[in-house]
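hi!! sorry for the late reply, been swamped w classes. u asked for the two structures so here they r. pasted raw, havent cleaned anything up. first the sequence of the first protein and right below it the tokens
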Amino acid sequence: MLDRGAIFAAMVGLGMAITIAISFGLVVAVQPLVFVSAPLAGLTIGWYANHKSFRWRPRWRLFSNAAFAGAVTGLSLALFYVGIRLLFIYADSGYRPEPMGGQFDCSNGPECTYVRMIEEPENAQALLDEGITDVDSYTSFVWRTSGEWTLQLTGFTIIGALVPAAWRAWKPAPSDEEIEAAMAAAG
């Protein structure tokens, strides 16, 4: 059973996930920032789920609210981020400006991305170190890492969301008067 505040927090988390994925997947395009943001988003949304619900007890409800909001946020972040990465790989047409050598000779999609990657010596060596020697092994690698990222981002966010729930579970519950005053102030 979930509180309405946790469901609302999950929708806020969905918006936060879209913002993080677009900001750090497209605008800034620094992958580690997405992974650093996941537990921070979880902390925020886990706290918000129980704060919005005015929930202190029973303890299992604190954890279920936080886990639900964290799971929605983390899964949304993972799917949007992985979707953006796959879009760039599968929509690669091999275009390259003439001063840089002109169009790659490849078919659209992972083949063009693979050709683009092996042109740079350090990227080619990194691919070889991963056991990637052709387009098929590159495509398998892309899908394997996409699955790993989905699990990691979802897990990081859920773990982050459970931290404020654990903290709140051991904190003394406010009095009924304090809860009523907070609810009245919230509207």
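now the second protein. again sequence first, tokens right under
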Amino acid sequence: MLTIDVNKKLGDFSLQAKFEGTSGVTALFGPSGSGKTSIIGMVAGLMKPDRGRVTINGEVMFDSETGVDEPAYKRRIGYVFQDGRLFPHLSIAHNLDYGRWMSGANRDEKQVKHVTGLLDIAHLLRRRPGALSGGERQRVALGRALLMKPRLLLLDEPLASLDATRKSEILPYFVRLRDEIKLPMIYVSHDTNEVKALANRIVVIEAG
């Protein structure tokens, strides 16, 4: 169970969000600039709320009243950005292992085989990111996040940089992930079709 109740002032922009999420996909839906990315940034520990509380499975990540503010690297939250953010000088195998290494988790060969099979990326392991398509890079970024064994997955418009053809190729993988891995996910998007295909629940964000 994820609970979020946060306030943040960003210049003249005031952001207020309060919602809960369970297993499956909670979509943060709204236009660009409405505050969606800032919300998941506060969940991840990349941005500090002015006031509020964030908990995951009953464990407090942030609480302004008690002063709790777990650093991002201790929250065990996977984060997939719009552009994947893979390391161009590393092989796909090493990119996949980076999240696991950063989180301090032990290498689990069974999990590696399961995730690479789930995302159809096992044949890419010896390649470099520059040799991959946009859709393949996003699947690798998703695999990297999963291999750190997160308790929550944050997806910040992961299909926004792809054209319509690539979106149609990768969207089924997100559906498969939702159905096969019982992991709470927050999916940020302003695309109606993506939200309809993926979301179990929708939180509408407009102007904060």
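hope this helps!! also noticed smth abt the second:
The chain has six helices and ten strands.
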